[in-house]
Specification:
two-stranded antiparallel ribbon
Amino acid sequence: IESYMAAPALQQPSFLLANLKVDSTTKPFLQRCQELVKVIDDYPAKELHLIFPWLVESVFGSLDGVIMGWNLQFLQARSNEYNIVMDFLDPSGPMMKLVYKLQAEEYKYEIPVSFLPGPVKASIQEGVLPDCPLFHNKLQFPLSGLQTLSLALNPFEYYMFIFASSLITPKNYPLGQHVSSLDNAYFVLVDTYLKYFLPTEGSVPPSPFADNRGSVSPPAPRAPSVPFAGYGIHSTSLLKRHISHQPSVTADPAAQEIWRSEALLQVFVEIWLHHYSLEMYQKLQSPQVKETFTPTEEHVLVVRLLVKHLHAFSCSLKPEQVCSSPSAHSHASPLEEFKRVVVQRFVQQKLYVFLQHCFGHWPLDASFRAVLETWLSYIQPWRYTGENTNPQTDQNKGVPEKWGLFVQENLLMYTKLFQGFLNRVVRIDLVNVKNALMVFRVAKVFAQPNLSEMIQKGEQLFLEPEHVLHHRQHRVFLTPSHGGSFLSARQSVVTDGVFRVKSHVYGLEGQDCQYKQMFGTELRGAVLKLIQIIAQARQTAKRISDHSAEVAANNSFMSWFGMGSPDLNYTFNGGEVDDTGECVKKTHEFLERSLDYLCLIFRLNAGQLSQLMATLGSGQDDGNSRQLPDCVQGENGLILTDLGRMQIINGLRRFEIEYQGDPELQPIRSYENAVLVRLFFKISSLVNERFGGHMEVLCSRPDFLGRLGRHYLASPEVMADGRQRSPETRRTAERNRRPRLSLRTLASYRTLLMLLFLYLFGVLFSFGPISSTLLILTGGFLYGLFITLFGDKLKSQ
């Protein structure tokens, strides 16, 4: 990449760059940083210009992932190098000083179009001008020998582009390295840049260098003839016209105050969010659509950090600017004007498509929590007003009425994504405490007082007939969702609530979308189904909790001797391994409160809920939980249906899992002595091998002796109980059904303890070891004789 990153072609070789490259492989990290600081301070911009692309790549890594950089995602606060890195890359630090030094000289640096996000790259390659002003007036024809287009970015844009791209660039990290906590250097640096360039208090500090020659003017205003869609409508010659005849833009002095803020936000949004085309989303809303980009959990967490800060930034708008008239806007400072439109203008559309993709394609596991919290952060801007409120008090107080406009302008963020969440949650294991927590979080957020009413009002506005249909297409162009720099033209505020909601929905979902109401009949049925699943999972959690308590009670000191339950064939599905004890109690609590919140959101009274529970109870008794899951017969056996999968996931039904091999070869249990098990197995094997034929003859007799022999010699597996089990081979089945002598019971600590008590009891009555042994054998024989004579009668009774 480096060979074509430095903009001016045919540069003279830089001895400074060569020396720095050598030092980067030989000198310690601290010394390198100290020397870089000295170089930045002492050398002129002409020399620094030649090392800038290399230095940025050596810090953040190259766009193709070959150069690893400083691995900021793995640099934790406890590391010795952490403070050095943070000081060097601080917004007021040496690296940014270098950026400003080059900025004042109007240097440009090229980024190949091939490294842009997919939709932007496709748009440019098709000859269509991207909507984002970041790409306006920067596209260049390839130089001689290059077959790709490129963007010419100023130093600040280039620095932020490489910094943002390092989060999503695939890299071959060393084995064993995993991006972990949120206190790594990259995450903290993102937070630092956001707070510095998008301040909630005060203004952006000015550049330490005069940049009159390098002033970045706001992008050209969008022409009225440019369609709203922005993709696939322009002619293929548009790009060449745009490059050949770039409009002359006069710098707006007011825009200079915040050009860095706008540039930083545009870079972050384009690189982190704009990976899915809105046009493709509208045309092909299908899980079968394959996207080349898959976000990671860390990527989503950084997006959430961006969302949270933008809400705080927007909420810091002065009160008189929030609902003031358009004439008042003309007197607002550029930063205040920026705060007023930042969320709707820059973030809403791309974040919506990004979240929709995540909701439809993210794995069905607990890592979805990152996506979920990003969504919940966006739809609750009132949490970031800077007011110190008690969360519990705020929950009871409800959502202030002033946020009704935000809900209307972001209606799909609430309704459509809630439907996407419903589609996911019915396919996951709600007995898992992490999944139960996610359901609880969503239910708690939507149950905030006033919020459901605001959503309903927005849906009612959307369903209202349009007052002036032929005005809509013209007015959509004036909405603040697309266009050039927001400072390029003062746009009238849309006061028509009906039009506001319709333009939002049609702008994101397309003119032909079929909107499903969140509080409509169809979605209400899906919610009732979810309530039943939650209730079923709650019952399963209670059964697991009761079973765990019973096992814990039995696992006393005596269970070491086999007094506890020895049945290792019994398994209780429906929860993960650690979903016991306190975890199951939390699961039950989360599900219980989720039911309460859902009933509050969708206005289900106690009678309706009781009816649902009664319907559930009539079909799910304890005996039913022992039945097989719903299956259909296939060529190779039973095949689970969707209903059967849901039954297994939520622990409603299960397959009987039992050991069906040779009973003598079962794993040694905790209540057995390993030495004795192996010893008795060898003895019984010798006896069975020598007298096996005689045993078969004895057990095959129909008389009393045959019955007595079957009692002592027949394998317990012969007794079929009619339950459906997995198939076994004929040879295995025949071997397991042969009569044989088994001495494994004598290796049990329980049996040994009983024998010890019997011998001690014999000592009390002056019986010797031989006499006690004969009495024990006689008692065992008489017990078998009694069972043989009267066992059938006892079973019938």
